[in-house]
Amino acid sequence: MDRTPTVADASRWGGRRRFARVGRVVPVAFLQIVGTLVASRFATSAGGDGSNGGPPWARHAFGGTVDPVLVGPIAIALLVAGVVVLPWRWRWPRGVLLVTLATTVGFALVVSPRGPFVAALTMAMANAWLRGHRWWVAVSGAVAIAVLPTADAVLGRSSVLDLSAVLLCVAWVTVTIAVSELVRVRLERVAERRRQRAEADRRRATDERVRIARELHDSVAHSMSLINLQAGVALHLGADLPGQTRESLANIRDSSREALVELRTILGVLRSVDGTREGAADGEGSERAPTAGLDRVADLVERARAAGVDVTLSLDGDRAGVHGVTDRNAFRIVQESVTNVMKHAPGHRAAVTISIGPDVVDLLVEDHPAQSQSAGIPSTEPLASTGNGIIGMRERANAVDGTLSAGPTTDGGWRVAARLPIVGTEPEDTR
Question: Which of 93, 299, 304, 366 could make an SS bond with 309 (beta carbons 3.0 to 4.6 A apart)?
């Protein structure tokens, strides 16, 4: 049985995702801030000497040396501001894109741009493109192309406009968009493959549920129908049977009929068949009893008493506040506990206590030996704490993040205690 993700799991997963998003910003921040500061400290030359330093739009097209750039506090603040907003790029992709565009353009207007000062803007453009804001990316790229390579010429820091700088800026925007589109297509293909695998898993699970339903119908439902039929025939023909015998046969007939209705309900859920069609096909009409809940605990106790088990019931609280998976699993835990008393300790006295609070349901089922057994008459073999019944009850408790404990008592009896939070979601697997 798959474990339902808890709030702690979601918190840990969310923490890892946030760390990953912030962690990817660190190399971008280092490249933009440190790389730009280092590139601005060196002089650059153009022409035929082939020396490097700074982007092409920091050089003159016709040769000459460009002096180092003094990056002042305002320019440094713009560099830092561009990377500080990047961790919020997934929540506000357009806002982060506008901020990084403003800081990058502002940096180009304050000082002669050199080095990788567009690293933050590149990341913001790629993120916005992947989030589907392509028009915003196109406009931002056009603004960058119009401002970044021309800032020196427009502001008088350079006497000529370097066309190679314009071409490089166009190439940078084009490559950023092209790579982002390739990544987007790749992610969509991966997501589609995952969706197809999940769909195939669901189909296999559906086929398995149908197979289980078919096997249950062919075996259990057939046997229960025979039991119900034979008990009814015995009651009809055995008019002279003792009263206690007729009462036992009537209990067998009624219990088997209720079990058949409940089994058909479960089979309908497994097959995902409409309840009216299922009921009509089975000859039971359009009405079908709902899945058992705490409202049927009293009937369960009455059947146990009819079978000869001394059972008392104490129910405190409003049953109307319990619904969904908690309601069903609470009933199944009580049912399994009482059934275990009937099977393993029929001479014991059992007590069922149900306390319904505002947000939890407390269950307690205890059985104790009668006086004759306390004096030395043994009962049937004890219930193993690792039996399938205990495992099933514990799984039902875990399905709603509840707790269950089961074990022997000091007087030779057995005790099952469970605490189930009241939830309304449907389980993915109940047993």
Answer: 304
